[in-house]
Write a structure and sequence with these properties.
By secondary structure, the protein is mainly beta. The chain has no helices and 24 strands.
Length: 327
């Protein structure tokens, strides 16, 4: 199956399912960024429902909007990875509108091939893990315009990425990090997911899967065999981490002021009333220290050009949650 194919059309009526195509694009110099999501949410026994999510980050904080039209306004195929209402996302770009709150028309450029977070192809068809994800377009340039809650921004070749994830349930706890436009190596990028999975009464340690691209060479990070060496200390607005790979170790810190973090509700598709809170910032600061054998340590830093997301069960984190249900 093509990595960009929507999975929801093949989900049986009795199953629960969620799916997301998401875009992050940012301009570190002006400390502005855009985070868009085109999502599918399906309860067991119910039809799938699509939603459009938009968050614009700037010097006044995050500005957010969401729309969930009826299930008849969800589709996929042709040039569109996903269609929700009048919005669509595909290889060439994306568009969408949330009446009175947001509108966007964006173009994508760049041909970086997908990066599968899961290290083995069979993991994308197996029952476990229940969450599948890949970086569909890891390094693109985004141009166009977006308006969210009266604030209009022009994107002129902003660095960004598009991801695709789907599954029967969310991880018990997760982190997504993305870094671009590093001062020392502007073409380098980091993209990593880190999760803890609930298996019966137990919750696994952190398992990382990701990539650091340096000088056009991809260095895979994490994997099941390296789970014991993964170190994470996470908070809604900050995390420190150690991510091991083959012949490489990446240590880092990602952080943002609390006022720059947006909070959203993510519902569990197969559990009535089950929810995660998600704290997300797309204008975070990131510093990486890269260790590779006998080479000198390499430091990479970007101010305002990184993304940090924490998905969690607790609701006492202090991040204001947007007044939108899911779906």
């Amino acid at each position: 199956m093509d990595p960009s194919d929507a999975r929801f059309p093949a989900v049986g009526p009795a199953a629960g399912h969620y799916e997301s195509f998401y875009l992050k694009a940012g301009d570190a110099a002006s400390r502005r960024a855009l985070w868009l999501r085109y999502t599918v949410h399906k309860r067991p026994g119910a039809p799938p429902v699509g939603s459009l999510w938009a968050t614009l980050f700037d010097d006044a904080g995050p500005h957010a909007a969401k729309l969930t039209p009826g299930p008849e306004q969800l589709g996929s195929g042709g040039a569109d990875w996903l269609r929700v209402g009048g919005g669509r996302i595909g290889a060439d770009g994306c568009s969408g509108a949330i009446p009175e709150l947001a509108a966007w028309e964006l173009r994508f450029a760049g041909d970086e091939p997908p990066f599968p977070y899961l290290p083995s192809g069979w993991m994308y068809t197996a029952k476990l893990p229940r969450t599948k994800a890949l970086s569909l377009r890891p390094a693109i340039r985004v141009s166009g315009t977006v308006t969210v809650r009266g604030r209009t921004v022009t994107l002129d070749d902003w660095p960004g990425m598009v991801g695709h994830n789907w599954g029967a349930e969310h991880a018990e706890r997760w982190i997504w990090m993305n870094g671009t436009a590093f001062e020392e190596q502007p073409d380098a990028w980091l993209d990593a997911t880190i999760g803890r999975i609930k298996v019966g009464p137990w919750t696994t340690p952190w398992v990382a899967n990701g990539c650091l691209s340096l000088d056009g060479v991809r260095h895979r990070l994490g994997g099941l065999g390296k789970a014991r060496a993964v170190q994470v200390r996470e908070h809604p607005e900050r995390a420190t981490f150690t991510l091991p790979g083959d012949g490489i170790v990446v240590r880092g810190d990602v952080a943002a002021p609390r006022a720059d973090v947006v909070g959203w509700v993510y519902s569990d598709p197969a559990v009535a009333g089950g929810q995660h809170h998600t704290a997300h910032c797309a204008i975070a600061d990131m510093t990486l220290t890269v260790l590779r054998g006998d080479q000198p340590p390499l430091t990479l830093h970007v101010a305002g050009g990184a993304t940090y997301e924490l998905g969690m069960r607790e609701h006492d984190h202090g991040i204001p949650i947007q007044p939108f249900s899911d779906p």
